[in-house]
Amino acid sequence: MQSSDRARPLRVGVVGLGRLGRRHAQNLAYRVPGATLAAACSPLEDDLTWARSALPETQLYNDYAQLLADDTLDAVWLVTPSSLHAQQIVDALHAGKHVFCEKPLSLDVAECQRVVEESRRFPAQQVTIGFMRRFDPSYHDAFEKVREGKIGRPFLVRSQNCDLNDPDGFFVRFAPTSGGIFLDCTVHDIDVARWLLGKPRATRVFAAGAVALHEGLRESGDVDNGVAICEFEGGKLAMFYASRTMAHGNDASSEVIGTAGALAIGRVPRMNRVEIYDAHGVRSECTPTFFERFEEAFLIEAQAFVAAVRARLDGAAGDAGQGASLEDALEATRIGYALRQSLQTGQAVTL
Amino acid sequence: MQSSDRARPLRVGVVGLGRLGRRHAQNLAYRVPGATLAAACSPLEDDLTWARSALPETQLYNDYAQLLADDTLDAVWLVTPSSLHAQQIVDALHAGKHVFCEKPLSLDVAECQRVVEESRRFPAQQVTIGFMRRFDPSYHDAFEKVREGKIGRPFLVRSQNCDLNDPDGFFVRFAPTSGGIFLDCTVHDIDVARWLLGKPRATRVFAAGAVALHEGLRESGDVDNGVAICEFEGGKLAMFYASRTMAHGNDASSEVIGTAGALAIGRVPRMNRVEIYDAHGVRSECTPTFFERFEEAFLIEAQAFVAAVRARLDGAAGDAGQGASLEDALEATRIGYALRQSLQTGQAVTL
Amino acid sequence: MQSSDRARPLRVGVVGLGRLGRRHAQNLAYRVPGATLAAACSPLEDDLTWARSALPETQLYNDYAQLLADDTLDAVWLVTPSSLHAQQIVDALHAGKHVFCEKPLSLDVAECQRVVEESRRFPAQQVTIGFMRRFDPSYHDAFEKVREGKIGRPFLVRSQNCDLNDPDGFFVRFAPTSGGIFLDCTVHDIDVARWLLGKPRATRVFAAGAVALHEGLRESGDVDNGVAICEFEGGKLAMFYASRTMAHGNDASSEVIGTAGALAIGRVPRMNRVEIYDAHGVRSECTPTFFERFEEAFLIEAQAFVAAVRARLDGAAGDAGQGASLEDALEATRIGYALRQSLQTGQAVTL
Amino acid sequence: MQSSDRARPLRVGVVGLGRLGRRHAQNLAYRVPGATLAAACSPLEDDLTWARSALPETQLYNDYAQLLADDTLDAVWLVTPSSLHAQQIVDALHAGKHVFCEKPLSLDVAECQRVVEESRRFPAQQVTIGFMRRFDPSYHDAFEKVREGKIGRPFLVRSQNCDLNDPDGFFVRFAPTSGGIFLDCTVHDIDVARWLLGKPRATRVFAAGAVALHEGLRESGDVDNGVAICEFEGGKLAMFYASRTMAHGNDASSEVIGTAGALAIGRVPRMNRVEIYDAHGVRSECTPTFFERFEEAFLIEAQAFVAAVRARLDGAAGDAGQGASLEDALEATRIGYALRQSLQTGQAVTL
Question: pTM (2 decimals)?
């Protein structure tokens, strides 16, 4: 909390009010000092009804263009379908807004590149892509320890993004447009690996997969369990695992291995600090979804974005801060796309 | 978040701006929907200077009586020296305010009783004592599991409150007025035990202690490590441990044992989800102080108090909710006082 | 393995072939270099039948006096009912045998003292009481770390002996002669505490208990859950917990706290290194009985006894080695007896 | 222990008395009921001197052919350099002996096949390759749980074999003949994966690696950290990690993931049940080498081999029991060899 907290708050408009959008909206409305949730936008009447009761006084829009035309807004916060992200970011930049956008930037590498190029024309505006693990206190602690040299030179990351099995297989219907398991889930791990290893570029990848439970995925060439290896320049490595079929909960964990030690983040996805001693043994219950696991990360992410924009407004040099830049998001898509190619061809893909 | 979040916010005045007072003030200012931090009070100019820069527009007072006279305030939040709590609560009730007060209610049993009696004249006003563990998500989860019968009938609680050793021994200078280790530290465990066991009354206690490092405590008849047993009506039991000399961090943990299972809360006081693999083995770093350990609890506690008062204002029947009532605080002091007696006499004390 | 392994092996006779006796017999028969299981004794034909098939060529006796008369035996190994221990040890000493005897030495303090005095007449003969935790690799590691000063000066031990609930309540029928929960179970913890704290003498104890499930215990003044505090000379302390009603397994754990750190032994009574990830969360299965938990300790204990006797035979000065001496066993009974007194009177007992 | 323990013991000759050979020799001499260590063989005088003092009466040989000519021996136990294994197994079969041989069977796939074919001519003789993890109680427990369907259908294994860094880099000098990290270390993981997944054949592999610390490995095309993916028939998968540069100890762990749950074996390579609470946090010390980690496995492996041979002698149908057959060892070498190829070419290798 600095004196600037008393300065004019940053006025933010949230776009998209699905489950995650609502979480972001409430964080911005009630829990981010220095920000005001000034507008919210959704084409769905249900979402707007929710906004009227759950959010403080907020200008409501059902059209993104109208929201962009609202001159009182400093920033937009995009929690819209992935296919809209790229164009919405460009539009927001043209409208003079700072932009926070949920991952992924785009499933299409060329489109990612277009946004990166376009954004270079607006150097005064902040654009951050929502790889929220960077803001999770444990991931952040690991990042700091790596930076301080506590594990020597880091050279290998193992990272996974595993979801509790959804017997209804909602994601199966979503498969034709999700980009597949690597672009949908592993992008988080790709970003974590590059972030912890010093942002190297990938040079070669290999991926394989299995359909353990959801046969419907075969139609779209997707799998419900995927494994991958990624080689980076400088002899660095990553191993990835993604699953849609876990029995115990959402299990997002990572490990960074260096020449003098290793750090594991979230080895047991324990819900809290309670251990149960009963006929099953001694156990910890697990976080069911990424919502419970990364609740705090979503909040800190919002606080960090607002702080970064306000630092710019106070005259600081702009940078992505701890958050992921458009370039990071481009590289994540580039690697994720290559993993999909490798899965489909059975061959290693050189980047 | 309900529609009432849009109603007039509860106006709260924080009294006392030491380390913990500042934490409460910031929570109320920025993180508690439905509340406005409308005033802050401290006799120290340094505290008020801090308030001017770190808090939003807030009426500042250096005198408690003046703050009580402020008719725009609905509630006071007392984070003052323990010896002042009892009288300040009574004064606030007479001034028509709802009251949150940090533990302990008082080190004197008779004084506790006086406050309890006085408070009965003000049934429309909420008074909650700050036993924050009840609001820690893990403690709360354990409480719910006990209530749902997951461990059968609970009959034994083991609970500890252990602090990282302070080589400077600040608390040694504080010893003559702290009430001793049981009234200062173990009150939290006493409250946890009663809360998890269904609020039984104590029938007999025994305590013993050791001076491991801080010889200066002997003068005031205090110890830096204390152990105790408490028998409750209905054949229930508790074991307590308090220490000022831990090498690894603040270690506040509890265990509740029932006829069909047991729950342990906080067995390893891990700082976060990171594990370090290095020449020391595999390890978790620990929470250094109760501030890190109970950061979330302090926030949820404030949210719950505000919600409880607002529910009253909306016409709900008043109750202490999940928080500790004056009666709970009285019983905690009664037991803590008996533990001190037992420590000093070497005999079991019957209550 | 030293050259002496080729010397004449120590000839041992096991007395008592119940469940634990059979374990000892097989260890001595097959897994203890330097020892020969030369004889076994039981009044029960079933036991002898078992011995004929499961043990190697062994002289079988149904009478202890006859076994003692067997001049080819160097040592006896007593796994008989507790009430027989004291006299059988004395008889074995008179017969010129070294003695290993399962705990407890006796439930009667005076009888313990008699054995101690009698044994002083036979200084050349080894007598060890079977507190097997001392030989568990983890307990032993903790002991060594304490001895090396790794945790500074140790001043507090917390130790527990908790059994999986036996719905049939076998031990209820055994209660009138078991000595009660403290003499039957807590003696192990008493011995552990004294061993880790440098063998201090107790000065005062207090105990309390609860009948959680087995109402039949009330008749004999016993409880199925007991808690206790023990003060030792020099300001050292111990807290004990014993239970017959655990849902998760045999949970024998201890903790030793020093001025520079603490060691916990067996915090989670995990069966092995497997963790299960399923709908219950992440869990470890637990050791069901002390047999699984202390399997290795029983073996190492036998190897250590044999090594100690052989060292004597090779001319080394006799000592109890790592094992518990008769004096240790006397002190354990003295404290256990005082705990029972305290439980029954509700008062602290000064020793 | 069955009655057959009284039958004539199996007479075993150990060949090779290096560090691991000595361990096997002592197990067979003192800890395996039903076996007699009847002979030991080494070309090194030092080894034979050790045998004279540390082993019981044993016939000593400095020549393998002489040992094979010893008609009193039933079985040979080969702990010799890897390059000798294949021929020594064949010679032993021709000499009428049962064979236990340390892994690997051979670094050469064709040679493995030759041994497999030759062995088919001696169906009455047991040949087991020493993949000792199968006998580790935790691995065995996981195997049984998989077999009982506890995790549904297993489809993915993640397994690693990581060694404490040896600053002297002994293995660097050994690199030209070791076969590389995958044939030397990962064979264990390959065998574990196939064993837990129902012994499927591999169809495609990809490997990558890094030289983190030991630059000298580059000369022989080896790495000190290797990662790999292996696809099996039936859509099953494995991920492997091998390292020579761990800071915390020997870390051999595995995970098997099924459609209804997962099992992790040895996630934290804790030395024992002690946890240390000090200024470093809360930690477990780790097993420094595979000797400490698999001490029990080596013993159980020997007991199982002896039991399997004796069952044959008693007329049971011969099988490999729980141990690895020559066919298993051939498949492990085939996969390990393909991993090396993939590492060197950067391409996926189809089998």
Answer: 0.95
